[in-house]
Write a structure and sequence with these properties.
The complex is a heterodimer. Chain A is of the alpha/beta class. Chain A is 37% helix and 24% strand. In chain A, the strands form two sheets. Chain A has a nine-stranded mixed sheet, sandwiched between helices. In chain A, α3 packs across α4. Chain B is an alpha/beta fold. Helix content of chain B is 38%, strand content 24%. Chain B is built from 13 helices and twelve strands. Chain B starts with 13 loop residues before the first helix and ends with a strand. The chains are: A alpha/beta, B alpha/beta. At the A-B interface, β1, α1, α7 and α8 of A face α8, α9, β5, α11 and β7 of B.
C-alpha cells in the first residue's frame, strides 16, 4: 500500500496525542504528548519515574474527547511486577477529577467504570511474554477501544534463556508485528527500558539496555533522570525523535501523578 | 519464467501450445530442456521448425552486444547525479547521489539518518517534476515534520501540498513485503516513470528480524532485494538510498607486562578502544557505491543557544576509496 505524504499528513494531524499532564514534558515529546502509531521508549535508572509515567499515560488515555483526549482504554503489560493498583487508582482518580474540574462537571468520578478501562496482563518469563504477543492481534480486535499498549519493561523477559543473536531477531520480529497493529489501528506503544553499563564508550558508559541495534528501532527515546535523589523533581531528555528537536524538560512526581513543577 | 506464446513462431499455434501444455511443457525453459525429437513427435512439426523456435527464443531472450562507443554516447546523454539540494553535501558527493547505484546512509541511533532522508525526499521533488518513493520499515516517516520544514522555507499551502503529493510513502514490516513493493515498481514501470529516488529507511530493522536463524533466510532475502534494486535503478534511472546502522563494541586490552617498550609504564593499565562497525555483514559491505556516514557532534558547552544539531558527515566513495568530510546542521527548517 503506497500513500502520498499529503494524505499521510491529513491522517497524522487528525490524530490526538496522549498528554502526560506535564506541559513541559509534552513539549519535549513534541506534538503535545505521546504519538499514536509510534513506538516510544522510556529509559532511566531505577527510581526515575518510568513506571509512574507509564501509569499516568494509562490514566491519560481516558481523558474525555471534549478536552482533546481519546476517551479510550489501555493495555498494561507487566513483566517486572512493578504495577501497583492502589497507586494507579490514585493517579486515575486525580487525573479524571482534574478533567471534571476543567469541564465544570459536578458529578463525582465513577472510579469503577474508569478502572474497567485498564486491561492488565502480568507475564513472567520469555515464553509467556511471546505467547501474549502472538495473541495480541486477537486481543486488540476484541477490544478495539484500546489506544495505548504499555510494556513495563521490555528488557525483563529477555534477561535470561536466550542468546544475544536470537534476542535481537526475536525483538525485531515482535516489534514489527506490534507496530503493524499500532499503525493500522492508531495505538500508541510505550516501552520501558532499563539502563546498562558499557565501559569504554566515548559517549558515556551508561546507556540503554539491549544494545545499539535496538536504540535504532524505537521512533522516540526519552531519558528520565532524578537530579536530586530525594526530591520529586525529574528531568526528561529527548534522545531521539523523528519530528522534534532534542530538548530537555522538567516535571515532578506527586500524589496525583505526573505534573509540572510549580 | 515466461510461458510459451504464439508470437514466437508462426508454427507455434494455439492448439500446439495446448498440446505441449498437456504434456507439462508450459514455460520456455520446459521447451528448451525437452528433447527435440520428442517435441517433434508431440507437435507433429518438422525438426527444423522446432530448431527455428529454439533459435527465436534465444534471440529474443539473450543479452545483446553493444558497441562501446554507442554505450559511451548513451551514458554521456544521461544525468548521472541527482543533486541533493544541500550544497555542502553535493560538493563532497562530487555533484550528487549516483543514479543507477545504491548509496548507503549509516550512523548510530539518533545521528540524523531519518532527518537526512526526509530532507533528501523533499529536495528531490521540490523544484522538479519527479516523485520519490519512501519505503519506511519502522514508522519513522513524519509528514508533520515534512510540512514544518516546508513551512519554514516559506512555501504556500498550495505549494506544500504539491510537494507532498510527489512524496510516496510505503509502510512495510517484513523483507517479504519489501520484495513485493520492488516487484510492484518493476512491473508497473509506466506508473512510476517520474520516479527519481527510492529511499529505504531502514534495512537493518528488517534484516535483524532474521538474526539468530540458522537457515540464513535473511541473507537470501538480502540477495533478492539487491538484485531487484540493481535492476530497477539501472533500467529506470533512479537513485537508491538505503539506511544502515552502526554498532559499537569495545576492545579491552591489558598492556603486556613483558613488552619491552612499555615496561617502564604502569603495567596493569587497561585500555579501552571503541570500534564502530557497519551492520548487515560482509555481503552487504561492498554493495553500496557510496557510503555517507553521519556522526553527531557533541556540544561541549552546557549552554545550548538553539536546538540545532551538528552532524559530521563523511562520504566514502567505494570505487576509488576517496574520503571527503563536511558538517551538516539539522535545524527546525530541515537539514542544511
Amino acid at each position: 500500500m503506497i500513500i502520498n505524504a499529503a494524505g499521510l499528513w491529513q491522517k497524522e494531524t487528525s490524530l490526538p496525542t496522549i498528554a502526560t499532564f506535564s506541559r513541559s514534558l509534552d513539549n519535549v515529546l513534541g506534538n503535545n504528548g505521546i504519538q499514536l502509531g509510534s513506538i516510544t521508549e522510556v529509559l532511566g535508572l531505577s527510581g526515575t519515574g518510568k513506571t509512574q509515567l507509564c501509569l499516568q499515560l494509562c490514566a491519560s488515555v481516558q481523558v474525555p474527547k471534549s478536552l482533546g483526549g481519546l476517551e479510550a482504554e489501555a493495555l498494561y503489560i507487566d513483566t517486572n511486577t512493578n504495577f501497583n493498583l492502589n497507586r494507579f487508582k490514585e493517579i486515575l482518580l486525580a487525573s479524571l477529577e482534574k478533567c471534571h474540574n476543567i469541564l465544570k462537571i459536578t458529578k463525582s468520578v465513577n472510579i469503577e467504570d474508569a478502572l474497567r478501562k485498564l486491561h492488565y496482563v502480568r507475564t513472567s518469563g520469555l515464553e509467556k511474554f511471546c505467547s501474549l504477543m502472538y495473541t495480541l492481534p486477537k486481543f486488540i480486535e476484541e477490544r478495539p477501544n484500546v489506544r495505548i499498549i504499555a510494556i513495563d519493561s521490555i528488557i525483563d523477559p529477555f534477561k535470561e534463556g536466550i542468546t544475544l543473536q536470537r534476542r535481537t531477531g526475536l525483538l525485531f520480529r515482535l516489534m514489527a508485528d506490534l507496530q503493524r497493529i499500532a499503525v493500522s489501528r492508531q495505538i500508541a506503544i510505550v516501552l520501558m527500558n532499563q539502563m546498562s553499563t558499557r565501559i569504554g564508550l566515548s559517549t558515556g558508559a551508561v546507556v540503554g539496555a539491549l544494545g545499539d541495534g535496538w536504540a535504532h528501532r524505537c521512533n522516540i527515546r526519552l531519558l528520565l533522570s532524578a537530579p536530586r535523589n530525594v526530591d520529586a523533581e525529574r528531568v526528561a531528555a529527548l534522545l531521539k525523535s523523528n519530528s522534534s528537536p532534542e530538548t530537555v524538560g522538567r516535571f515532578r512526581i506527586c500524589q496525583d501523578g505526573i505534573r509540572d513543577i510549580l | 519464467m515466461d510461458t510459451l506464446y504464439s508470437d514466437l513462431s508462426k508454427n507455434l499455434t494455439q492448439p500446439i501450445i495446448k498440446k505441449l501444455s498437456q504434456n507439462r511443457i508450459k514455460t520456455l525453459i520446459d521447451f528448451l530442456q525437452e528433447d527435440i525429437e520428442k517435441l517433434s513427435n508431440l507437435t507433429k512439426l518438422e525438426i527444423p521448425c522446432i530448431l527455428q523456435i529454439r533459435k527465436n527464443i534465444f534471440e529474443i531472450y539473450s543479452a545483446t552486444v553493444v558497441n562501446s562507443l554507442s554505450l559511451f554516447n548513451t551514458v554521456c546523454s544521461r544525468i548521472t547525479e541527482l543533486e541533493t539540494g544541500i550544497e555542502s553535501l553535493d560538493s563532497i558527493l562530487n555533484g550528487g547521489i549516483n543514479i543507477g547505484y545504491i548509496t548507503e546512509v549509516c550512523g548510530l541511533a539518533g545521528s540524523g539518518k531519518t532527518q537526512l532522508c526526509m530532507q533528501l525526499a523533499v529536495n528531490c521533488v521540490k523544484n522538479r517534476d519527479k516523485t520519490v518513493l519512501y519505503i519506511d520499515s519502522k514508522g519513522d516517516f513524519s509528514a508533520i515534520r515534512i510540512q514544518k520544514v516546508l513551512e519554514e522555507c516559506s512555501f504556500s499551502h498550495k505549494e506544500m501540498a504539491a510537494v507532498m503529493l510527489k512524496i510516496k510513502v510505503a509502510f512495510i514490516w517484513t523483507m517479504d513485503e519489501l520484495v513485493d513493493i520492488l516487484l510492484q515498481v518493476k512491473n508497473n514501470k509506466n506508473e512510476y516513470n517520474c520516479l527519481s529516488l527510492i529511499i529505504l529507511d531502514s534495512l537493518p530493522s528488517l534484516m535483524f528480524q532474521h538474526f539468530g536463524d540458522e537457515n540464513k533466510i535473511g541473507l537470501k532475502f538480502l540477495n533478492i532485494f539487491v538484485n531487484h534494486v540493481k535492476y530497477i535503478c539501472k533500467t529506470m534511472e533512479v537513485a537508491v538510498i538505503c539506511v544502515n546502522i552502526q554498532t559499537r563494541w569495545i576492545d579491552q586490552s591489558v598492556s603486556d607486562v613483558n613488552d619491552n617498550e612499555s615496561s617502564d609504564l604502569t603495567t596493569s593499565d587497561t585500555y579501552y578502544r571503541e570500534n564502530i562497525n557497519r551492520c548487515l555483514g560482509k555481503y552487504w559491505k561492498n554493495i553500496p557505491k557510496t557510503i555517507i556516514i553521519l556522526e553527531k557532534i557533541r556540544q561541549k558547552n552546557t549552554q545550548i543557544e538553539n536546538n540545532d544539531t551538528h552532524i559530521q558527515t563523511t562520504v566514502l566513495n567505494c570505487d576509488i576509496g576517496q574520503i571527503k568530510k563536511s558538517v551538516l546542521t539539522i535545524t527546525s527548517s530541515g537539514v542544511i
